[in-house]
């Protein structure tokens, strides 16, 4: 039997990140939400108010990621390190600066293409565990593993996943 490397869920407007992760894990793992704990941890400063999300069910760590843009929240659970990102095409177009995003040879032509490049790179950086502490220009998309996801109109989303055994927080 082939194992799907990840499970993605979109959540209702107003759902908190913590609640979304816990409901997602309960449904995907077949457990009750009361045995699921989740939170965030910044590896730079140790804060639990921001940083990489974590999740444990019955004390066992699982690989997770989440992203919010506008009213949209998406979460992912995986069997290996994972990153997910959703972006508003209009928001990326307003703040676009190619010198901060593109590696040599990357040249997206449209606002949607630029938003996709941004979303793919953010997903890769989340999967690596560095987030935006690593400059986007250091990510060469041709060298990475990512997949575009279906997203609401006006938005783009991408996921990046790593090799099993790379460690959940």
TrEMBL record:
Coiled-coil ranges from the UniProt annotation: none
Sequence ranges assigned to domain 4'-phosphopantetheinyl transferase in this UniProt record: 81-140
Protein name: 4'-phosphopantetheinyl transferase superfamily protein
GO molecular function: holo-[acyl-carrier-protein] synthase activity; magnesium ion binding
Keywords, alphabetical: Transferase
InterPro entries noted in UniProt: 4-PPantetheinyl_Trfase_dom, 4-PPantetheinyl_Trfase_dom_sf
Keyword Amino-acid biosynthesis: no
Keyword Transcription part of the UniProt annotation: no
């Amino acid at each position: 039997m082939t194992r799907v490397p990840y499970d993605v869920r979109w959540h209702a407007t107003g759902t908190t990140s913590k609640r979304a992760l816990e409901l997602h894990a309960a449904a995907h793992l077949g457990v009750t939400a009361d045995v699921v704990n989740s939170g965030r941890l910044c590896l730079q400063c140790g804060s639990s108010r921001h940083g990489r999300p974590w999740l444990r069910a019955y004390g066992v760590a699982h690989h997770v990621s989440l992203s919010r843009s506008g009213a949209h929240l998406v979460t992912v659970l995986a069997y290996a390190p994972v990153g997910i990102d959703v972006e508003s095409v209009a928001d990326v177009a307003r703040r676009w600066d190619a010198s901060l995003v593109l590696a040599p040879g990357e040249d997206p032509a449209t606002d949607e293409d630029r938003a996709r490049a941004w979303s793919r790179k953010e997903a890769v950086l989340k999967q690596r565990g560095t987030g935006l502490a690593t400059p986007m220009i250091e990510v060469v998309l041709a060298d990475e593993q990512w997949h575009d996801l279906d997203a609401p109109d006006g938005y783009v989303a991408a996921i990046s996943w790593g090799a099993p055994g790379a460690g959940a927080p």
